[in-house]
Write a structure and sequence with these properties.
By secondary structure, this protein is mainly alpha-helical. The chain has one domain. It is built from 13 helices and no strands. Helix 4 packs antiparallel against helix 11. The longest helix is centred in the first third of the chain and has 27 residues.
């Protein structure tokens, strides 16, 4: 029989991927009436406040070392979010951007091997060329554009964001061993909020008035796609093996592309479809060991006749 706890976790993680995908749409709509750094700064500061309150009983256990580690991860997250929001502002196809950003999980083992000498499964050497091939196809341009191999600014920003996110994931995995995941997330979001707000104050012109529509998208992005999403994700990952989370969270770019098609009317050319498919295949290859664990687990839970 299927473990009810694991089933609950799987459903919650599926909700998390939908919320994350929705965050792309919410953010894109909010940028119509808000400067990008202001949007990220206020959004993450408010989202962090909610998580800080949710984890208020755990704060007393943190040490100065925990705060320093969380702040470092937060700075890496700040760079990633600044690159991501700039790419989103310039993007003409956010479904494609979601797949490019998801390359962060493919880059993690490569960076961990390069920086820390951590042994990695050999299968990463298969995932990497597949991912590169997928990105190369996206860089070939849209069908009928008459453009050959040419990287767009948004694609470069998303790729740089993926690299920064990979670094953030590595340092985050080390920091979370010594402190509660919820508080680590809250501190990271606060660092992003403070840093990007400061950047915005000195580089952007804040709007005198924000329309109700833009405010609605901003609220959805802040409290639904950020605070609620991370709270649910932290809880769900405590209920199920990491193999479940690793595989289900891979669906985020797929949902993002589908939501972008439904809400923004985006469509993909054959080259884009093939490129995104190769990137998704690279994500599956990169998580192959988790897929094997997941399949074996499902087989063991299958009721006998």
């Amino acid at each position: 029989m299927t473990d009810p706890k694991h089933l609950k976790a799987d459903l919650l993680l599926l909700l998390v991927t939908l919320l994350a995908a929705g965050g792309w749409i919410f953010s894109k709509e909010a940028l119509v009436g808000m400067p990008p750094m202001m949007f990220i700064g206020v959004r993450f500061a408010l989202a962090s406040s909610v998580l800080c309150i949710a984890g208020r009983q755990q704060w007393s256990g943190l040490t100065s070392r925990d705060y320093r580690a969380a702040a470092i991860v937060g700075l890496l997250f700040t760079v990633a979010m600044m690159l991501w929001i700039t790419g989103l502002q310039r993007a003409t196809h956010i479904g494609e951007g979601a797949f490019i950003t998801s390359l962060s999980s493919v880059l993690v083992p490569m960076i961990a091997l390069s920086l820390f000498g951590q042994a990695q499964p050999r299968i990463i050497w298969l995932a990497l060329p597949v991912a590169v091939a997928g990105f190369a196809l996206l860089a070939l341009g849209h069908a009928g554009s008459g453009v050959g191999f040419q990287l767009e600014a948004a694609q470069l920003y998303f790729l740089a964001a993926a690299l920064a996110l990979a670094l953030q994931m590595i340092f985050n995995s080390r920091a979370v061993q010594h402190m509660p995941a919820l508080l680590l997330t809250a501190i990271q979001l606060m660092v992003v909020g403070v840093c990007t707000s400061l950047v915005s104050i000195f580089t952007e012109q804040w709007p005198a008035v924000i329309s109700l529509e833009v405010a609605g998208w901003f609220i959805a992005s802040t409290f639904i796609a950020t605070s609620f999403r991370f709270f649910i994700q932290t809880y769900a990952m405590s209920l199920a093996p990491v193999s479940h989370a690793a595989m289900i969270l891979t669906l985020e770019p797929v949902w993002t592309a589908l939501l972008a098609a439904a809400w923004l009317g985006e469509s993909m050319s054959p080259l884009q479809l093939l490129g995104c498919s190769l990137i998704f295949l690279a994500l599956m290859i990169n998580r192959w060991r988790w897929l094997v664990v997941l399949v074996r687990s499902a087989g063991q839970q299958r009721p006998r006749l």
